[in-house]
Amino acid sequence: MPEISSNFIHDIIDSDLESGREDHVHTRFPPEPNGYLHIGSAKAIYINCFTAKKYGGKFNLRYDDTNPSKEDTEYVDSIYEDLTWLGAIPDGGVFYGSDYFDDCYRYAELLIENGLAYVCDLSAEEMREYRGTLTEPGRESPYRNRSVEENLDLFRRMRNGEFPDGSKTLRAKIDMSSPNMNMRDPAIYRIVRAHHHRQGDKWCIYPLYDFAHPIQDATEGITHSLCSIEFENHRPLYDWVVNSIGFEKKPHQYEFARLNVTYTVMSKRYLRYLVENGLVDGWDDPRMPTLCGMRRRGYTPDAIFEFVRRAGIAKAYSLVDYELLEYCIREELNRTAPRRIAVLDPIKVRITNYPEDKTEYFELPNHPGNPDMGKRKVPFTSELYIDRDDFSDNPPPKFFRMKPGAEVRLMGAYIVKCNEVIKDENGNIKEILCTADIETGCGNPTDGRKVKGTIHWLSAAHAEDVRVMHYDKLFTIKNVSDIPEDKTYNDYLNPDSVSELTNAKIEPNIDRTSGAKYQFVRLGYYVSDSKNPDTFNRIVSLKDSYKPE
Questions:
Q1: Which residue in the list 58, 62, 173, 268 is annotated as catalytic?
Q2: 213: part of which helix (H) or strand (E)?
């Protein structure tokens, strides 16, 4: 379980427990199954699940499936998979908002019978007009004072499918002059003819979230309904529903700031647009902020929760650096990832004084900082690959890698000297000819000379082909909230967000099983792709100048 930092929510819970207002803690995570979970969802999961664990309470997963036109079992399955991958097991149970449709309908009739709800014939446009503004009160609907009997009759006929979609709504009768516009007779039921993924065609009327959610919380015994800050103005309506229905045990809603990350879009509607228009490789594209995309990219639950913890739990808006997320996974993989050799842009090196038919093995540590991870044997032959960036025939000052006439250490093996560069008719390097100081092995020269540079290498005869994918930020703008009115997200899609290296080589001691993670020495951290075992995705670069506060 990740470290749980104290925060203002825990202060509230401590007070509730101390005062006797509550004697236990029960939370829930209520995602709408209309898309895949993203990094912002991880914050809500962290707060709800691990707050419950901290206090020895229960945590529910409840699908908010009250909008059938946008929901699908694909999203239902993906949400549960993401939660279990994160280790956020819903030990309080798995529920669906649709499980409560009969209850919601019964409570809606109760409100009608108590004169607290009415059927309204205003169109959506007319309702907006009647609603008023932030500075002007709303006007009462001409249908507001229908009798209880008429409202019950109309509402039952709505359920029976006698009226067209959108022609009528059931509205709570509260206060059209309230300064909180959410309390100006909000709609709590609407007519929608859409096939529901669980209920089929049983219903043609559906409760709205602000009505259904407090009923679900109260029914499940939720003590602390923790949600993002945009629902703060909805809290009076939440309380009105709970009190008007007369629940004995009343849940309470508390809000926290959403997780906003630089260079990232959290809109599920737009993420779906990217997927449906082929601008990314599905919901699990490693550039996507979705949890399945991050999983495919190689991020771990511990790194994601550490990022959420460091970002903090507060009510004030903040924009968290994407680099902090990279920092968290880099710190973890620096401790845990085995080291392996990869050559991403190979050029051939031939050791002219080494037997062509000889193969020897050098032992290299799997992790220089952790001897318990052991060692592995890496083959060495007369023909090798090195990275193109590790050679220059016109080197700049202080270039300590391979260059004509100079010596360089082959990591864990011999010191070699570059004697000749063979090029084709176009000036491209075909082969570099070197001689090895055979006496050095993996030790230092006996004559005391110093060799400053060390480069990595692979035996050409043993190296395996692999495709390597490098990913960058999906957007070029740091704060997506700053997009001008005449622009869209599309205008800021990064055209260089992905690059493909098709000629890369890796050592044979590499597990290509989906999710296997390594540090490719001197290059970065990589993971075997979940869709193609012949592909490795870069998780994060080896180093970065970012320093967390």
A1: 268
A2: helix 209-220
